[in-house]
Design a protein that fits this description.
mainly beta, four-stranded antiparallel sheet, 11 strands
């Protein structure tokens, strides 16, 4: 059974940092592009970033470019999202997701999702 489990969310002050982790099981990670999405109350889901299966391609949303950094460890089936200089508008539920590598990083086909982890940026 394929499963993605996020961890690392929480409450942080503006300007602070958090690192989210995503542990994959039942998926052979090198065969998948890995993505992070987020959804704030009342807003549409937003694709934050995608890292290609090899790690050679990384695509950030403009809203997080220069502040967030994605990485992956295929040997440990882990994906990380380092979030720096956090802003109140980054508050959302963050979801880890996986796309088979024969698709692209556009987020149009995303069959695997985690349950989400809440990130709240507030003073």
């Amino acid at each position: 059974q394929s499963q993605l489990v996020e961890s690392g969310g929480g409450l942080v002050e503006p300007g602070g940092s958090l690192m989210l982790s995503c542990k994959a099981s039942g998926l052979t990670l090198p065969y998948y592009h890995m993505l992070w999405f987020r959804q704030a109350p009342g807003l549409e889901r937003e694709q934050v970033v995608c890292i290609s299966s090899s790690g050679s391609g990384i695509y950030y949303a403009d809203s997080v470019k220069g502040r967030f950094n994605i990485s992956r460890d295929n040997t440990k089936n882990l994906v990380f999202l380092q979030m720096n200089r956090l802003k109140p508008e980054d508050t959302a539920v963050y979801y880890c997701a996986a796309t088979p590598r024969h698709y692209d990083c556009s987020g149009s086909v995303v069959p695997y999702w985690g349950q989400g982890t809440q990130v709240t940026v507030s003073s």
